[in-house]
Amino acid sequence: MPKKIIIAIDGPAGSGKSTAAKNIAQKLGFTYLDTGAMYRAITFIALRNGISDNIPAVISLAQSIDLKLKFENGITHVFLNNEEVTEQIRTAEVNAKVSEISKIPEVREELVKIQKRLGAEGHVVAEGRDVTTVVFPYADLKIYLTASIDTRARRRLKEFEEKNIRISFEDVKANLETRDKIDSSREVSPLKKADDAIEYDNSDVTPEQDFEYLLKKIKQVLSQK
Prior knowledge:
The protein is an alpha/beta fold. The chain has 9 helices and 8 strands. A 5-stranded parallel sheet has the order 2-6-1-7-8, sandwiched between helices. A hairpin with a 2-residue loop joins strand 4 and strand 5. The radius of gyration is 17 Å and the shape is globular. The mean pLDDT is about 90.
C-alpha cells in the first residue's frame, strides 16, 4: 500500500465495534487497536487497589502504569506491569465503573498518547468512543457503528452468559443506558459521530453481514490510495 492506513470505528457499548474491528484487522493483516481495553485496564487496577473513587490516585496510576496490548489469534491480550489481565477487565464490576474512569481528562490524555503512538506505526484498525474525533481525526476511513439499546443489551448479556456471569437483562440494559449518558455527555472527548464518519446501524443484521458491509466500504477507500 502507498501509505500507512488507519481505519477508525466509534460507537456505543455493545454496538459490535470490537467484533467488526477484529475481523477487519485479521482480514487485512492490520493491527487491531482496542482503545476500550485500555480504559478497562485502568478501571480494573483502580478497583483492585481500592482507589476508583480517588481521582488524583487514578490519574497517578494512569501516568505510571506499564500498559501493553497484544492482539493474537483473535484476542486482545492486556498486560499491566507484565501481568495479564485480559479476563479480569471484562467483568460486570469493571463495566459499571469504566465510563466514570474514562471521563477523567488526565486519564484520557495519557491513554491517547499511547494510542497515537501505536497508530503512527500504520495499518491500524482502531475502535473506541473517540478514535474518529480525537485520537485519529485524520483517519482514512471513519465509521460510527450503532444499534438499538435492546440489541446491544442482548449482545452484552450473551457475553456475560458465555463467561458464566449471572446478571439480568434489565441490569445490563440499565448499565448500558448509564454508560451511554456518561460517554456522550462528558466534557472531554464525548462519544459522538464525526462529521465525515459513515453511520451504520447494525441492529438487524448478522455479524457476517456487518463485516461484509464494512469491508466493502474499506476496500472502496483503499482502492483510492
